[in-house]
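Appendix B. Raw example, untouched.
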Amino acid sequence: MPAFRELTDDPADLAALRAFYDTLYVAEFPDPDERESLANMAGYLRRKRQGWYGRNNYHIVLGEADGAVVAASISDYLAEPNTGVIEFLLIAPAGRGAGTGRKLLAHTEALLDADARRAHDRPLDAVLAEMNDPLVSSAVTDNLDPVTRALIWHRWGYRGLDFPYVQPALSADQDPVTNLILIGKPLRPDWSAAIPAPVVASSVHEYLRWAMRIDDPGASAEFRAMAATLARTDRVRGLPLDRYVGRDGAFEIRPATDDAEFDAAMTVYRKAFAPGPATVPESAFRRARSDPDHRLWTVRRTPADPVPAGLASFFVLPAAGFAGYLALTGPLRHTGLFRPLIARMETALLAERTGIRGWYAELAPGTDIAPYLAIGCRELDVDYHQPAPDVPMRLIFKAPGRSYAPPVLTTADHLTDIEHILAMVYGIAEPREHPTRRRLAAGLPPAPTAAVPLR
């Protein structure tokens, strides 16, 4: 087990910091917009020695074993809200799975709690941390499977904070980071389900001020947007991270790849979807079994259930997904499983397409759209017809993850996605010339960057 030590700005510690930064840190932060500079880290240690932090504090902890750095954390104590923020906590790949992360977390949390007792003579109220959102698209491949990371932090007692968090740009040469979620572990019993919104707002304000060198967080457009959202509520609820990614054990997914599972999926399909112009024959599913872009799952409440009561059929397109059929029947109906089932689908899409912008689904005119609206889908105000047969349908769209604002989908991206749906889902050889695409395009704004209208 590595030995943990906190760094100062003396020459030997700065040399250790540089060695850690040039090897483990850069490798574990592939997104340059998330990466703090070595000069800033060293500067914070110098400011700490000079007393710049006042009642606040800053910690760099390295875990060393056999002369090498195998773990590290950087954290901030914020006196005004009496909270701590873990900027990052990382374990070298070779050292994972041995309990090092949990021990480093406990060490880091103890440092922050000691800061609180010095500043206020009472324990720390909560610890927050930034994490790559496992349900948000990113242009950079993560260094660790984001679902795995979410489940680790869940086991450590952290929950997602349900508000739209954006990290402002760390420098003039960097961009804001929009694929993060702020997670938290409340340490007060009365905050177990939610943290007061003013505390979250104060924590973000002070974090920007002391950790990101933004002297006036109110001048940051990202902070103003977050503060405005937080001002509209009293408390910020905690999202269980295992349920957030659809891995809380409430149901079981099985790929319907073998004959028995495929036949079970078709049994669910027949029960859930009556034959009609908006449904496809079972032969279409049989043809799709050889399609590498098609996924067919069965859903059970428990692994012991002999037959499934749900299914999910969807396609992985180049920049989007297409949900063909989603159903929860019998014992799975009205059990709150639709949202985590969607999370499973979205994490599967994001695992294969890091730049995915969202997913589509067709709804027959009489379909109840309420369950889809409840998870953040929006109906597109377009003239869309299912191509085979030519049937008018409602077309819905959802960006991955939590929904705090209507999605912004450009006409150019939308038409590209429609072409992929026609070609990959319906097997249409010339999708640009198909009546479905031509009719839809005729009703859209002509500018490629214009937003697709929503109902």
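End of appendix B.
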